[in-house]
Write a structure and sequence with these properties.
41% helix, three-stranded mixed beta sheet, 6 helices, alpha+beta, 3 domains, 8 strands, five-stranded antiparallel beta sheet
Amino acid sequence: MNLIILNWLNDHLHGCITASLALTLICGLIYHLETIHQAKMEKAVQLSQAQMENINTLQNQLDVSKQNAEGLKAAFDKAQSGQLQPNTHISVTAPSLPIAAQQVQDRINKQDTSLPPLALQKTDRTVVVQQPGNKDYQVGVYKLNNYRNWEWSTGYGQHGGDRYIPVELQRNFSKDAAVSVEYHYGGDKKGFEVKYTRKTDKLFGLF
């Protein structure tokens, strides 16, 4: 058996190396392109009040799901009615509202450290909005972290001398709770896990 395995490796070594290198390059390229796209989407953008009121526009302009667009619109509506107050605020001196909004957008994208840390906090999306009808805050900054219904993952696992590939599928029921199923593919023994995940600010009320 050892001789057969050794002969197979000798015969296919070049192909295995080539396939591994190709897979590594493809994964590297995908990661690079995704990083560029994500960095672009994290830049602060300007939207009008009318655009903030339209779910389809939010989905298209921000490249987010309907669920995330609806959440952003709901937060915007509450802010305009005074039901949602800003976490922090600053004063900006500018000759007009459009120029003030542009200044805020530019300063966020340049990571101006004179801004409050919350304004510079890295999130999936940052939206700057002119709010002429809001007597208290004429420029609003809305930070959005996308909520995703599903997550999946895979990798490499080893238990003693048994090697396997774990494949996991997770369903997020809220931002704080999820259920996942993990299957172990390959190896001498098959196996799976079912997990319930809960996010909390403190562990057992202590930390």
